[in-house]
Amino acid sequence: MKKVQLSIYLDRGIFGSLEALAKRHSKPKSLVAEAAISSFLSPDDSDRREAAIAKRLDRIVRMLERLERNDSVTLETIALFVRFWLTSTPALPEQSSPAARAKGGERYDRFVEALGRRLSSGSTVLKEVSMESSDPGSTTPVTGDPGSH
């Protein structure tokens, strides 16, 4: 392939670097300059790295958005349960307080054990609710009112 001649002016420092690199690699200065110009004009590693980083960041953003959504569902579920429980559970008479505390302690211990089992098994209420609400044949209403179930 026939090459085209190009005359350029370089700063003395750049010319010195070009000359040193050509000498170190035992290549002609024109070949080193041609490779540098070619690299400058074509997409290089930094562009590919930037694209890969942008793709990873997009994936991370989607995961964070999903986590934020899951946290919102979780917090709303807990808030709804607490509000429903507080409005529907009558206060205990004063004389039953020690027995109620003991029973509450037992229930709490069972709750913590059940929570530990569910978390270690990977089964979550959020997954169950997602499956129920996305199942077109599901007859279970998914609403914000706990009294509607």
From TrEMBL:
Region (Disordered): 123-149
Polar residues bias spans: 131-142
Full protein name: CopG family transcriptional regulator
